[in-house]
Write a structure and sequence with these properties.
The chain is of the alpha+beta class. The protein contains twelve helices and eight strands. The chain has a three-stranded antiparallel sheet with strand order 1-2-3, covered by helices on one side. Strand 1 and strand 2 (72-79) form a beta hairpin.
């Protein structure tokens, strides 16, 4: 008969956040040895984590942060199964720890990230992830991240639904006015979801395809198809410029002043501050994009829980 007390069960529960009966059974199996009982629960937790890994994690949040001390920015998507867990303080703290770890360790990819020590922890990121799966009780996944060196601006929209990181080439990085401008540009990316930085960034094949579509539209228009070639060419050029205004960040109408393009807004800010600002690149993560979301009937779920 294993020798342990109710107080030991409570202590084990506090250390592991596992259920009372699980703790009691683990202490029984470990003959009252606390550390061995923790190990047993960890092993069970890892097994449970493996089982949960089959469930789709398409909720969660995107964290985007600037680290001035490292001259870098990070954007990372961490997924959970439910929106409820995504708002949980433990989950939010975990996602921020992952961002901080990426900033410090600069891993090459998610696999490399899993092997490094988590910021402020003795565990690796992989171990910490498994621990959170055990504690929170849902499948969690670190889906993707980008770490960008240089002067960056970050913006998070909708409580972590969208995260944006924009890189700039500027000599005004320490000025508050530039930081406000950077945030505005990041907000533009979040709101308008541009596909490319500028017209020069649009792939040639994409542009050719767009021109083909425009030419087909003109040929199918009775009022336009018989116009002179040079007129049709001008029409296509005009529509291509309109296309640029839709898909290119620099050419989009600035959300805070529709009379300005984003490029003009940045140029005006640089001129007012007596320096230069150039948008170099941007990254936009939207939570769960491209993932198949689990569709449950809530009433059926409640009924199954009652059973």
């Amino acid at each position: 008969m294993a020798s342990f007390t109710a107080k030991d069960v409570q202590e084990l529960r506090a250390r592991t956040s596992c259920g009372m009966m699980d703790c009691k059974n683990a202490l029984t199996a470990a003959d009252g040895d606390m550390d061995k009982a923790v190990e047993i629960l960890r092993e069970k937790g890892l097994a449970a984590a493996t089982k949960k890994a089959g469930r789709i994690a398409a909720e969660g949040l995107v964290v985007a942060k600037v680290y001035d001390d490292k001259n870098a920015g990070v954007v990372v998507e961490v997924n959970s199964e439910t929106d409820f867990v995504a708002k949980n303080e433990t989950f939010v703290e975990f996602a921020n720890v992952i961002a901080d770890t990426i900033a410090d360790a600069n891993p090459a990819d998610v696999d490399a990230l899993m092997k490094v020590k988590a910021k402020g922890s003795d565990m690796t990121v992989e171990e910490l992830l498994r621990d959170k799966i055990l504690t929170i009780g849902e499948n969690l996944k670190i889906r993707r991240f980008e770490r960008v060196e240089g002067t960056t601006a970050a913006y998070v929209h909708g409580g972590g639904r969208i995260g944006v990181l924009v890189k700039f080439d500027t000599d005004l990085g320490d000025k508050d006015e530039f930081k406000a401008c950077g945030k505005d540009v990041a907000m533009q990316v979040a709101a308008m979801s541009p596909q490319y930085l500028d017209p020069a960034s649009v792939p040639a094949e994409e542009l050719d395809k767009e021109k083909e579509i425009l030419m087909a539209q003109i040929q199918n228009d009775e009022k336009s198809k018989n116009k002179p070639a040079q007129v049709i060419e001008k029409m296509v050029t005009g529509r291509i410029n309109k296309y640029y205004k839709e898909v290119c960040l620099t050419d989009q109408a600035f959300i805070k002043d529709g009379d300005l393009s984003v490029a003009k807004y940045v140029e005006n800010t640089a001129k007012a501050l007596g320096g230069s600002i150039k948008i170099e690149s941007f990254i936009r993560f939207e939570r769960g994009e491209g993932l198949e979301k689990k569709s449950d009937n809530f009433a059926d779920e409640v009924a199954s829980m009652i059973k």
